[in-house]
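Worked problem 6 (solution included).
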Amino acid sequence: MTFFWAFVIGGLICVVGQLLMDLTTLTPAHVMVILVVAGAILDGFGLYEPLIKFAGAGASVPITSFGNSLVHGAMAEAQKEGLVGIITGIFEVTSAGISAAIIFSFLAALVFRARG
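Solution. The predicted structure is:
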């Protein structure tokens, strides 16, 4: 059942994004921002972690989990460090993913030739 719920929840998140692009004049970048902010808001209310526990990768893989990570890290560090912890918590939680994206993008740019 874990795989089923991961598929359903992840699919629903993607359906929401696709519907926003198909039924509105929003660009993919706008939809991405909406999904990140939605994940952040859900985590702010304490709703995203239970969703991850229920759906696993269905909730932790889509872009909404990036917003969840930002808020989750900021709130955890803010409790320990105060206001400064808000900023450091954001960087601490997301630094590995962002660093990996930069490194792999650079390596891909070395291997593949851009068309222009």
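Discussion: The radius of gyration is 16 Å.
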